[in-house]
Amino acid sequence: MGLFDFLTAKKTSTASIAKERLRIIVAQERSTRGAPDYLPLLQRELLEVIRKYVSIDAEAVKVDLVKDGDHDVLDISVALPEGKA
């Protein structure tokens, strides 16, 4: 019976796929709503500087502004590739 399960499986509708994509977009917009305008530019510039020394892709650098009590903390995360230094 397990062999033919793929034939009878319910297919996800395009509406549910679109709904899930919209949820992702809304979540991203909400996370950047209070963020300063310079964060995307800062992320691009950091990526350019790091690329001078190490080959990484754009998703390897994440820049976020985090509230820590009364202070704003700039959180920078860089995923460096494993290999020779």
From TrEMBL:
Domain of life the protein comes from: Bacteria
One Pfam family matching this protein: MinE
Entry keyword set: Cell cycle, Cell division
Biological processes annotated in GO: cell division; regulation of division septum assembly
A GO molecular-function annotation: identical protein binding
Keyword Nucleotide-binding tagged: no
Gene3D superfamilies: Cell division topological specificity factor MinE (3.30.1070.10)
Function, in words: Prevents the cell division inhibition by proteins MinC and MinD at internal division sites while permitting inhibition at polar sites. This ensures cell division at the proper site by restricting the formation of a division septum at the midpoint of the long axis of the cell.
NCBIfam families, sorted: minE, PRK00296.1
Family statement drawn from the similarity comment of this UniProt entry: Belongs to the MinE family.
Protein name: Cell division topological specificity factor
Species annotation: Luteimonas aestuarii
Gene: minE
